[in-house]
Amino acid sequence: MQIITENISRATIPALNNLDIVYPTERVMMFDIETTGLSPDRSFIYMIGINIRKSDGWEVKLLFNDDGQSEPEIIKTFQDELLSHDILIEFNGDQFDINFVKRRMAHIKRVTGITIEDNFSTVRSVDLMKLIRPYKFALGLPNIKQKTIERFLGINREDQFNGGQLIDVYLDYLSSKDETAKHLVVQHNRDDMVGMMYLSDIFAVTSLSDGNFEVSGINTELKAERLYLNISLKLPFAMPRRIFASGNGISVNAEALSALVSIPIVEGTFRYYFENSKTSFEEHTGYFITSMNEEVPALPVYKTELKSKTNYIELSDNFLGNAEHIKEYAGRICRLILQNKFK
Predict the structure, then answer these.
(1) Within 10 A of 154 (CB to CB), how many other CB atoms are there?
(2) Digit-coded pLDDT (tens) for 190-232
(3) Which tens digit of pLDDT belongs to each residue from 299-313?
(4) CA distance 225 to 181
(5) 3-state helix, strand, coil in the chain (%, to 5)
(6) What is the secondary structure of 134-185 as a DSSP string?
(7) In angstroms, how far is CA 73 from the centroid of its own chain?
């Protein structure tokens, strides 16, 4: 086994500040594997990349199966490292990497009798692909492959190969020990690991979707002869780039450390129905905004008819004068619009 290390300054990757905010005290590491195929029964692991958070930055540590025989050693080294951490961040690791490692450990024990302690249960796994998938539409991504997301973030790799293309390069290296071949396989995993650091920018988007912001102001605006309610937000995370998502005239526009939620205002007469009774209701005439077709805690919901699927909140003092109601409502919109769930 060969261990290849590189230190990354926190200042060179601003996205890492997101991790410091999300996990300020937890011991965080990232990992990714390279294999000679997709089946753990017919292929093996030839590299495990690890990112370890340090006080002054991050360390990239590549565990390289440089002789084709070191798989048990690199897996054990990785498993031992897990014991010193609380959070394990990966990309599609819940679906592929973790299961592959577990099955290779079982294979190694079955074939060689070597038992490697499984320490996955000692950490909490965070799959960046799962975090990003709900925002594919809002981010305008054609797919959620790691390289695609990196390009969205403006990252240009030195490595231009995918894992499948490098399998033969690695196998050729085992027989030739050619340094160019070694550089190609090492560079690919190194770029995967550094790229994963940049993907920490996704926490800015998930934070907004989770309602983690401050309401900095509200106002009305006339646009294209239609009145809108604007809710301005102050964000704890800087957006990696401008994000705009919309649905049914409602929009979320986020850039840098601020976001603007814009909702069409409807003027008219709507009914508040008592105890779901068709004949027992109270009519209100005024200005309304959509309730996103969900129940709104502590706020009455209005509609045109009892069974109407379009519900509204009145722009009364009960709503506009309550900061918690406004924040809860803005958070609801950000979640549904950014995740493309508006119905």
Answers:
(1) 9
(2) 999 999 999 999 999 999 999 999 999 999 999 988 999 999 9
(3) 888 999 888 888 899
(4) 63
(5) 40, 30, 35
(6) GGHHHHT-S---HHHHHHHTT---S----HHHHHHHHHHHHHH--HHHHHHH
(7) 31
